[in-house]
């Protein structure tokens, strides 16, 4: 689908619409901190040479020998598995890691008694086993608590143990769209979008999936700014109607700036459909598109609310706020990239909104609202709670919402230990990782919106700076 937008549609602002422009809301976002940096990484620079491939294979064999040489009942085995997974190469050693953790799980009651005073080992074992889907009780930490149920103050000096406890896209495409010029009000964050996808699945076999998911996230980011900041209610109604009907011929009913977005959006989903068609699963694109429609309906409801004087209760707010968290769009789009999980049954499971997905949506919505309070001039969970509880303080609202985030995490952890209609690997690979990325993006500040402050450094460490191999 390569239909060109007429040149006559190019001007973003016309004299006729000058009054409308004056009435628009406005937020000043900093420009992309990356520019064309990653365009320098052409395909010929990323091809793995035969010599490098042999070296990679040699290193993998060395690590595999190390894994096999260290006994499963050795405490050092836990540290090795942890290091491998942290480096993002755990997928090369899934069989060995699964076998070792199965043995450790089967014998952990006995080993816990031997290391009962070692918080680091207890917490590390607990986390690795839970991540693998083994049901391990939180009671293993009781030995480190006092009579009041609080962790013993003597642990303050045990930094390693506390840390273990605490832890218990193609740039050319974006550049060609010219959104920076055609939609200058929107955030320019393609590299940051890719970092979302990278946090969900980093394995080499999902390289194309990451690129597609980054495109989906970029499209979400732009339409979020259209509904949050720039569009008038009449314009937003037109865009919602066009997305509900999902037909390129409707592009002419849209304002000029929306035409560019609408065409680009449909092109992205055509690309996803073509990928699904290669495996005979193109009809499943229906589910992916429906989640996008559901998201835009939520955006529209939020926009209408901003034009009224009504402040909803927190419960009322979350009925729209959870769908607008965007995460079910992430999940449905992620499914298309993981071939072994793509099925009608899996998509029907997403549509049913099981508890684990509700918990994911709550985390995304509430974490975003906490860091956006004060900067984003719109109704949020914080403001709704304060208004609902007779002028409760900001601190009280934050405490309550943080508690709800914690409870949502408990739901996710609990649901990961129960059989579901989708494989456990998908729960861990996509859902849990997406919740983790949320904490990275929305811990202390909105790192996505204000990426120059924090996220730039994180991405530099991940994608730019080399890891030295001794």
UniProtKB/TrEMBL annotation:
Residues 42-69 form a coiled coil. GO terms for molecular function: magnesium ion binding; terpene synthase activity. Residues 175-410 form the Terpene synthase metal-binding domain. The keyword Coiled coil applies. Pfam families: Terpene_synth_C. Keywords: Coiled coil, Lyase, Metal-binding. It comes from the Eukaryota. Its cofactor is Mg(2+). Pathway: Secondary metabolite biosynthesis; terpenoid biosynthesis. One of its GO terms (biological process) is diterpenoid biosynthetic process. The keyword Ligase does not apply. Belongs to the terpene synthase family. This is (-)-germacrene d synthase. It comes from Olea europaea subsp. europaea. The lineage of its organism: Eukaryota, Viridiplantae, Streptophyta, Embryophyta, Tracheophyta.
């Amino acid at each position: 689908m390569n239909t060109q937008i007429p040149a006559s549609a190019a001007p973003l602002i016309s004299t006729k619409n000058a009054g409308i422009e004056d009435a628009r809301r406005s937020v000043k976002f900093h420009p992309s901190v990356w520019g064309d940096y990653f365009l320098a990484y052409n395909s010929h620079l990323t091809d793995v040479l035969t010599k490098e491939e042999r070296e990679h294979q040699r290193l993998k064999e060395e690590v595999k020998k190390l894994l096999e040489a260290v006994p499963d009942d050795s405490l050092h085995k836990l540290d090795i598995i942890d290091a491998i997974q942290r480096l993002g190469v755990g997928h090369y050693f899934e069989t060995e890691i699964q076998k070792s953790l199965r043995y450790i799980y089967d014998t952990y009651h006995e080993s816990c008694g031997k290391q009962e005073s070692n918080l680091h080992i207890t917490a590390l074992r607990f986390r690795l086993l839970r991540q693998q889907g083994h049901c391990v009780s939180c009671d293993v930490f009781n030995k480190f608590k006092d009579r009041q149920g609080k962790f013993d103050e003597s642990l303050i000096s045990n930094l390693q143990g506390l840390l273990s406890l605490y832890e218990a896209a193609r740039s050319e495409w974006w550049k060609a769209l010219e959104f920076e010029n055609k939609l200058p009000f929107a955030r320019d964050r393609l590299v940051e979008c890719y970092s979302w996808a990278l946090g969900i699945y980093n394995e080499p076999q999902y390289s194309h999936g990451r690129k597609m998911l980054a495109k989906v996230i970029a499209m979400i980011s732009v339409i979020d700014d259209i509904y949050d900041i720039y569009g008038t209610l009449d314009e937003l109604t037109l865009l919602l109607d066009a997305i509900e009907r999902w037909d390129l011929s409707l592009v002419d009913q849209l304002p000029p700036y929306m035409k560019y977005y609408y065409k680009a959006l449909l092109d992205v989903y055509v690309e996803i459909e073509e990928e699904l068609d290669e495996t005979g699963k193109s009809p499943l694109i229906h589910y992916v598109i429906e989640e996008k429609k559901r998201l835009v309906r939520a955006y529209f409801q939020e926009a209408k609310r901003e034009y009224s004087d009504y402040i909803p209760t927190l419960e009322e707010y979350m009925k729209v706020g959870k769908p607008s968290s965007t995460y079910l769009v992430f999940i449905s789009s992620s499914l298309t990239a993981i071939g072994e999980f793509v099925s009608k049954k899996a998509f029907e499971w997403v549509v049913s909104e099981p508890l684990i997905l509700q918990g994911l949506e709550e985390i995304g919505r509430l974490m975003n609202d906490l860091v956006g309070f004060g900067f984003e001039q719109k109704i949020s969970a914080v403001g709704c709670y304060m208004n609902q509880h007779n002028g409760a303080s900001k601190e009280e609202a934050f405490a309550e919402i943080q508690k709800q985030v914690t409870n949502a995490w408990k739901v996710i952890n609990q649901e990961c230990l129960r059989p579901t209609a989708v494989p456990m690997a998908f729960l861990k690979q996509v859902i849990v990782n997406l919740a983790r990325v949320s904490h990275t993006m929305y811990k202390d500040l909105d790192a996505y919106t204000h990426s120059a402050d924090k996220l730039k450094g994180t991405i530099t460490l991940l994608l730019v700076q080399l890891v030295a191999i001794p």
